Amino acid sequence: MSGQKVYITEVALRDAHQSLLATRLRTVDMLPIAGEMDKAGYWSVEMWGGATFDACIRFLNEDPWERVRLLRKKMPNTRFQMLLRGQNLLGYRHYADDVVGRFVELAADAGIDVFRIFDALNDMRNLTAAIRAVKKAGKHVEGTISYTTSPLHSTAMFVELAVELEKMGSDTICIKDMAGLLAPEAAYTLISEIKNRGVKAPLHLHSHCTSGFANMTFVRAIQAGVDILDCATSSLSQGPSHPPTETVVAMLQGTKNDTGLDLDRLIGIGRYFGDVRRKYKMFESSFTGVDVNILKSQIPGGMISNLENQLKQQKALDRLNEVIAEIPRVRADLGYLPLVTPTSQIVGTQAVLNVITRERYKVIANETRELLRGRYGKLPGPVNGELKQRVLKGEEPITCRPADILEPEMEKLHLRYPDMSDEDVMVTALFPQVAQKYFQNRGKTPPEFETIGMDEAPAPSAPVSPPKKSLIPATASVGRVRQSVPRTGEQAI
């Protein structure tokens, strides 16, 4: 094992329930355990971003901004981390730079400390505006590599991305293995090569257990010198979710990589979420084990349960296997792009259309067309020639940074919605099709939750050990966050 402390990011409040419960976990079920989580000593808690913003307004009638503030009151000593899709923010298209800047300001003001910023195509141009905004806000930039496998992707390519991310100002660098494709030896090689290139920014590994690799991959990553690991409390782990927090902590106890976390406290947190999970049975993915076929389909963990729900709504769940088989074919047609929001939704939607219509590309989704036009960025490789011709009709895709052709949006939004707060303006900008319904229903219990006990959160277990000293004081500026994980040659604090 590498001779350094390993830090833990807990993802129960974001990616774990996104992967297992279709992102339906409500704030009311987060708050009772938040105080215990605040005492746990995690490097960070990922609790926002990804699909949570969308789910709050689309399904839960919750104010996503208020979720951050409510949790912050309960967790004053914990870094809050979010997942941000670069120029896509939390929506499904590119937004103008002024929208990106204002969104980051609002998120930082609400309580977000660490911004994990990625681009689905690994087009680094799509990260520049978000990184600039996070730096301006004095917060922590975690530049991110979207990991995938294909005939076009290699270790050397990902190493170069890590080097570039550090040059762009990343305080930490995340290897985001959203579908569980990173094999143990590949992880060891990749992390070792990045370190050998002289990258000083601490490395943060995110992986899913979908293929069965992740637990073993974590071991090899630790041996290669990874600094931070994403884990999910045991009752919300495994399957399309993540390696269990308690298991990783127990595995490292007494070693040079000891996390320093209190296992008994973590067990209590896991017990609480186990009780909560039973309430969300109706949203639970039928996929809870290991599926090596994911190495072919490359469906990210957070997409499976949502894909099942979409097919249920279309009364076509019996065709799920056909859709899963079609996804890698569509991906190849589109230049072997990584599958992570929004590209996973684009490829998934096109695969569904190809299956439902029983003819490939009989119907081409508008987002597929925009992808081929270059509106999302540079595709990794050449695309299907026939498909390209049908969409572009001889024209060439744009080659500039996609946001460079967008007009500023915030002033127009303010003129159109003069009585709205900036937070509500941002909701409208990101999700115009569902915003009005959300404003009408905000605060109301969704019909699907109107069952006995759904508004009653289980009581958390009593603390079993005294709280540990906080990693950061409640009043600390986020400019200090980066100091908690040492760069090479520095001492941890």
Would you give an account of this structure?
It is a single chain. This protein is of the alpha/beta class and 493 residues long. It is 42% helix and 8% strand. It is built from 20 helices and 8 strands. It has helices at 12-20, 31-38, 52-60, 64-74, 97-110, 128-136, 155-167, 184-196, 214-224, 245-252, 263-279, 294-297, 301-313, 320-333, 343-356, 366-372, 385-392, 410-416, 422-430, 432-441; strands spanning 7-10, 44-49, 80-84, 114-117, 140-146, 172-177, 203-207, 228-231. Helix 5 (97-110) packs across helix 19, helix 10 (245-252) packs antiparallel against helix 11 and helix 19 (422-430) packs across helix 20 (432-441). The two termini are 21 Å apart. Mean pLDDT is 90; it is low at 462-493.
Structure in a nutshell:
By secondary structure, the protein is an alpha/beta fold. It contains 20 helices and eight strands.
